[in-house]
Amino acid sequence: MARHASDADFRTKLQEWIPKLVLSPSIALMLVFVYGFILFTIYLSFTSSRMLPKYDLIGFDNYARLWGLSAWWTAVTNLAIFASLYIFICTAIGLTLAILLDQKIRGEGMLRPIYLYPMALSFIVTGTAWKWFLDPGIGLENTMHLWGWDSFSFGWIKDRNMAIYTIVIAAVWQTSGFVMAMFLAGLRGIDNEILKAAQIDGASNWSLYRRIVIPMLRPAFLSAFVILAHLAVKSYDLVIALTGGGPGRATELPATFMYSYTFTRNQMGTGAASAVIMLMTIAAIMMPYLYAELKEKK
Amino acid sequence: MSIATQDTDVNTGKIARTFIYLVLLVFALFYLLPFFVMVVNSLKPLDEITGGNMMALPDKWTIQPWLSAWSSAQIGVEPTGLKPYFVNSILMVVPAVAISTFLGALNGYVLTKWRFKGDTILFGLLLFSCFIPFQIVLIPMATILGKIGLAGSIPGLVLVHVVYGVGFTTLYYRNYYAAFPTELVRAAMMDGAGFFRIFWRIMLPVSGPITVVSVIWQFTNVWNDFLFGASFGGQSQPMTVALNNLVQSSTGVKEYNVHFAGAILAALPTLLVYIVAGRYFVRGLMAGSVKG
Amino acid sequence: MGFLDISNVTKSYGTVEVLHQVDINVEEGEFLVLVGPSGCGKSTLLNMIAGLEGITSGDISIKGRVMNGVHPSNRNIAMVFQSYALYPNMTVGQNMTFGLEMHGVEKSKRDVALKDVAKLLQLDQLLDRKPGQLSGGQRQRVAMGRALVRDPDVFLFDEPLSNLDAKLRVDMRTEIKKLHEKLKTTIVYVTHDQIEALTLSTRIAVMNGGYVQQLGTPKEIYDTPANLFVATFMGSPAMNVLPAKVSTIDGVPYAQIIDGEGQPVSLRFSQENMADWDGKDILLGIRPEALTDPEGADRKSTNIATFHNAIDVTEPAGSDTFVTTTLGDADVIARLRADTDVASGQMFEFAVNMDKAVVFDPVSEQRIAP
Description:
The complex is a heterotrimer of chains A (298), B (292) and C (370).
Chain A: H1 10-44, H2 61-68, H3 70-101, H4 108-116, H5 123-133, H6 140-146, H7 163-188, H8 192-200, H9 205-216, H10 218-234, H11 237-242, H12 254-264, H13 268-297
Chain B: H1 14-42, H2 46-51, H3 64-71, H4 83-113, H5 119-131, H6 135-147, H7 154-178, H8 182-190, H9 195-203, H10 208-224, H11 227-232, H12 239-248, H13 256-289
Helix pairs in contact in B: 1-13, 3-13, 4-7, 4-10, 5-7, 7-10, 7-13, 10-13, 12-13
Chain C: E1 4-13, E2 16-26, E3 31-35, H1 42-50, E4 57-62, E5 65-66, E6 77-80, H2 92-102, H3 107-120, H4 136-149, E7 154-158, H5 166-183, E8 186-191, H6 194-200, E9 203-208, E10 211-216, H7 218-223, H8 228-233, E11 240-249, E12 252-258, E13 264-268, E14 281-286, E15 291-292, E16 304-316, E17 320-327, E18 330-337, E19 347-353, E20 358-360, E21 367-369
Parallel strand pairs in C: 3-8, 3-9, 6-7, 7-8
Antiparallel strand pairs in C: 1-2, 1-4, 4-5, 9-10, 11-12, 11-14, 12-13, 14-20, 15-19, 16-17, 16-19, 17-18, 20-21
């Protein structure tokens, strides 16, 4: 017996360390730039920072102030309207298109890219296109008038009460094709033998989808919800490009609120507080999802 | 995209089929119309837009708006056109995509083939960082970039995009490598290959499909980003920010045709990538999102 | 000390011990098969020999050199994996010489080694193909070729035939056996297939629950299984196990069992020392081929007992006819000659070769006789 068990050779020891060393830059970046920054922002939300960070703790004053601001309430209300409509309509359109596209459609190869291409665009481009398309003076309304439909009126984008819905339209246009692709992938993953069995059992197409196919798409629904929900909370560019938060403040969302309070109005403490609220919203959606995903994989 | 493994076996009647085609075509129109209108009107003189029908083809075709958007339109205060910003975007996108993809590949390799205690937690943290609202990091990021002298510079933007993109690239490579047989890595180990040799010789040569996905994903995200560009761009603003400045400028006559030409210019690189390699992109997105 | 020594080796994951005190010495040129149901620890043990998993306690040494903590590539071993683990981006030739390249062997020497092995395994024509273009059997041969090129001290096989279809599996089994007889290499081979174990090995280690249940030649394992687990795991169809009672008549021990009708049947033991168990319960193990029709019984046997019993099910299998009958409240399988004329429900005369019967203690499940 020449050597003892604990006497691992140098190479083996090194091989054990290399993977961790390779992973460490990413982990370090993440710890500092994501979690460190989150902690820093949370800290700032308890200080009286205005134009520059200050480090005096003032308790929950910023949060109290935030929830007392009518602009914040507008932003939160808008987000509730926007997110629920956006998620619901995208899911509905995405599911419908996926089911229809799954019926051995000739030209599927051409239709799919058409449905999908908007997601390759920047929200700024989408916003620019729709801003103009919805403009009553030169866009859709004008065209309808020129075509002889004089009573046609579509001025939502200039209407304080309706402008938030134009953001929904543009956002749905951009993402619903992507949701379609997610559902289509789910549909294509369903075993055809199950469909055959259900048809032999006498299920009509309607009940086949309602009772068997759609329940089997549960994972796709969940993924779609998580992705759409987090996109909704993060929505910033589209509002800037489409309405700039207006008319007035009618289409402010938490993301635009945070930006303008922090960098334009020099209310950094309040801005930080609003960012923390946004993070908590997303965490509430993502945490259970990620937990379930990672646990399953082990 | 060729995710199609099998078409459904559901049978439909003739009337139903006609209806299905009708609905599908209406939606195709819905998705195509805004872009069609943009393209058509970017090729018209301004007076045809303000006085005419947006659906009509141009009476007088012109590429003047495109030239103007590219090289002479007023962006902010300077009449530079979008050209310098386009260059900024390229200078930012290429290193950001290359670095984040490379890191993602290494991370995915470690997290699947060299697992250790706690790796799932680290991956969970990394994954969550993909989904945070970036507002939560804006303030400290502005401070730090200022302190390390990268504020308003291209390297600063590259750093930001690498940091917040590496979670996604890691996710892609991790899912891809997870399906790659671990026995191959063991075989290579017994053959005498070490950590990096296995990566170069065994893993990378078969990583083509997922690398396409990761590159396209990162390219689209970084190119299309507005928030970071607007916050930290300073003197090196990317294309999206410049486009927004062009469109939102309140001085002078609104040159819609130039705006559209600019918007299409800003969309062109990602659209091109999407048209050329879109099928891989979607296939990969499916693997990454549906299966977690 | 043997060629490959596994002494007092244990493996734990956290507080769970999955391998307990394994002790196996393998001589040079031996073909050792580790066999057992899934989760018995056989693959863990193989991976520990390979260096792919750490050793919790004990030592593994090859040619007298302790291998604990030595990197897999420095142990001079080669392994054939269940999935073959061929590098998909390399040609067959590159796959086979990758290991030599990693060990810094120069190209001309690699080519010589490759040529020899390719000829031996009839892979000459395939060297420029990619693994994706090969059939299952060809991939299997490439995987073995990759191991052979290295000329290692020990070959490790991890269920190498389980991905092949039934016919190919038998062909490849023969091929592996031929190869071993020709090259006289030392092999450790893991499988869950007991027929592979019996046909290939020079010695078998039957494993279950992280313990080596028995270590011995195929004949020892088959004829004198150490305990009930080994008895029922090895052999197909499995050994019949019937509860019985020992009684002595004039000092001669008999096994008392109940037939399908509820009538007692007495079978004389070939082992006289079974008289010591007079009046006690035992388990009687009878392999299907030791329970036959009287004409089919082993001529060399010294002790054949016959009795009548009803046939429940007949299963003609071509070369044999298997019938099921009820003995001691258990289903018992007998192996009759192929042309035996039997039908379900019929009364039939069975012959038991008691020389081949194995007796177990019903409590400890250990073998008492022979």
